[in-house]
UniProtKB/TrEMBL annotation:
Annotated transmembrane regions: 27-49, 58-78, 106-127, 139-157, 163-186
Organism: Nonlabens agnitus
The entry's keywords: Membrane, Transmembrane, Transmembrane helix
Protein name: Phosphatase PAP2 family protein
UniProt xrefs under InterPro entries: PAP2/HPO, PAP2/HPO_sf
């Protein structure tokens, strides 16, 4: 049963990865680079800072960064214990897939997927809490595109990306709740 699921994951990966061979290579290489998304993070920080008091804004930015670091730590802990080979390092796949990057570390779960979904989730929920707008949900276009790029460049399986998304959503939600709790504690402390 487990081997069948692993094989299904490989087959889906090969299909999706094969859709883009020779097409949009520069786009997917651009999308998958973390540093290209720094302006978006700065925009998130600006929105958080402007949507609430300056103290809460700065604290929210700190919590987004804490969420990202915690998610990355959890990701690396799991990757180093599960030790699933990336598609680009898998002998059965290496010669038949589109490989645009060649990281040597392990695959499960996708750090790009987990961290981007965690950061986006806490940002969207905090913005919704303090300055509601349905437009904030459009921010999820970023982590979806970012996560999918990992399949297209040949370094993650669909299961890696999917589990990373779920971990990111749950972690972002948990840190959002923690942030609200901390804000409440601080407000109660200041009133005394």
């Amino acid at each position: 049963m487990w081997e069948e699921l692993v094989q299904l994951d490989r087959d889906i990966f090969s299909f999706i990865n094969g859709l883009w061979i020779g097409r949009f290579t520069d786009f997917w290489l651009f999308v998958t680079q973390i540093e290209h998304w720094i302006p978006l993070y700065l925009f998130f920080f600006y929105l958080l800072y402007k949507s609430m008091s300056w103290r809460k804004g700065l604290a929210s930015i700190g919590m987004v960064l804490t969420t990202a670091v915690f998610t990355l730590w959890c990701t690396n802990f799991v990757k180093n214990n599960v030790e699933r080979l990336r598609p680009n390092n898998e002998p059965m796949l290496m010669d038949s897939i589109n490989i645009l990057q060649k990281p040597e570390n392990f695959s499960f779960w996708s750090g790009h997927s987990a961290v981007s979904f965690a950061a986006t989730t806490i940002v969207v929920l905090l913005l919704q809490h303090y300055k509601p707008s349905k437009w904030y949900y459009l921010f999820y276009i970023w982590p979806i595109t970012f996560a999918l790029s990992r399949i297209f460049v040949g370094v993650h399986y669909p299961a890696d990306v999917t589990v990373g998304m779920i971990v990111g959503l749950l972690t972002g939600y948990a840190f959002y709740k923690l942030t609200l709790f901390l804000f409440e504690v601080l407000e109660n402390t200041r009133k005394r």
